[in-house]
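Methods, example record. To illustrate the input and output format used throughout this study, we show the complete record for Glutaminyl-peptide cyclotransferase. The sequence lines were provided to the predictor; the line carrying structure tokens was produced by it.
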Amino acid sequence: MPILSYLRAMKKHVQLLRGLAISIGLVFTACNNNNKPKEQSVTAVTSPAFMEYTVVKVYPHDTSSYTEGLLVHNNELFESTGREGFSKFAQVDLATGKAIREHYIDKSIFGEGITIFDNKIYQLTYRSNKVFVYDLKDFKKIAEYPWPGEGWALTHDGKSLIASTGTSNLQFLDPNTLQVQKVLSVTDQNGPVNNINELEYVDGFIYSNQFLTNNILKINAETGSVVARADLTDLFAQGGKVFNPAQLPDPNEDVLNGIAYDSARGSFFVTGKQWPYLFEVKFR
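The corresponding predicted structure is encoded as:
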């Protein structure tokens, strides 16, 4: 074979070997890629926004009221209180803090939160496993339902009652049967948020006291995510009032509790157990 032809043949042979090597490399690369675990997209959970507030006005509050529930209905303020022997619900005069009309329940029962729906007052009990229903006009009891576990607070979204039981879960209830329609888990960037207490539903969000803290939580009523948090530690100072917790009847338990939205004013009322004041605030 002439030397030139021999060199050309060798060149083609080398090119074929290179092509084969590249093909084999691609096959191994593809196999390795197929064996790699697929990356999963992770949605970052953002921390709740800081919700500022302004104190609009300060009103007197009955210091014998161990507040469990607070609400505004048809421009009237209603409050429920707890502790055996002292549990009641009442229509309250905002200007004086005194009851206009009130209803005490059985002395053996610790009353909890209330809500008003379809001209009826629904009242939870703490550990008596009962829910009472009253006629709004005369406060007469018209129904009683069994309730599993503890009862803490109530509100409604215009369709369902919404109940808290002290955990991180909120229960949506049929107002006619009190059967559970769904359970909403309240979470923030750290996971479940416990001690969800007194509730108020406003425009797709649930505002809640977090028991044993000075926090008001703003919760997305669809997802359960805490989207904002207000720290009311300086509430008395911002309201121009001197506050000494030691002067409360029970400093360890007389904590912030009670939140009501007044749509006519566009503001909230907040207070605490056996506190001397009720504060009108606007959240920003």
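Annotations derived from this record:
The chain has one domain: 51-283.
The first strand starts at residue 49 and ends at 50.
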